[in-house]
Amino acid sequence: MQSPVLTTIAITGFSVAFFHAAIPTHWLPFVLVSRARGWSRAKTLAVTVFAGMGHVALTSLLGLAIAWFGFQLDEHAGEMFTWIVGGLLIAIGTYYFWQQVRGGGVRHHHFIGGQHRPSATCGHDHAEANSHWDTELKESPLASRKSGDWAAISGLFVMLTLSPCEGFLPVYLSGVQFGWTGFFVLSGILAVATLFGMLLFTWLTLLGFERFSVKQFERYEAALLGVIFTVLGVLMLVLKHEH
Is residue 180 scored above 80 in pLDDT? Predict the structure, then answer.
């Protein structure tokens, strides 16, 4: 049973992390700040990786807490553990479907001008997002050349670090059955998928792909997560039953 389950969890984890990184809050600010400050592409991508590492680190730390909780649950639940986790994943998938239907989407946060602000991903296309960030950055030290580059870099780092990939946390729970090996494998997948996605979309935009849009990912992120977690939960239950 372990091989197909682990493969499914790994693919799920990569998909969740990559699509999460495709949301404009994870790469558009770097492009706009870069243009305002006249950074080179290499420096912009380096700052993107730096901030992405903070994003991954906090998510992994939260994942560590989830894994520890899962280990305790596994120890006490025994054979029922897979059924409990499968049911939880289906419940989480249902929650995301409900979020999509009610129009709330998945809420992300950004840190601009010293304020930590929630931002709903639903209903904004790439042009609107660009305009939104341009407006906020005009009054922010992130884009002002009066402040040093370190102020902008640290601001971008804090902005992204304080917005962990909450959608990846259920993936950590599903990997509990593989012990610490599962945790470290999933943390590696989180890092690779997140940094790859952030670098890819930042790089494409820096090259001038202004019409490149991921608004469908952004608009339907909640529904996509709903499908992913529901399918993962069902597969875990089916594979457990077959085993």
Answer: yes
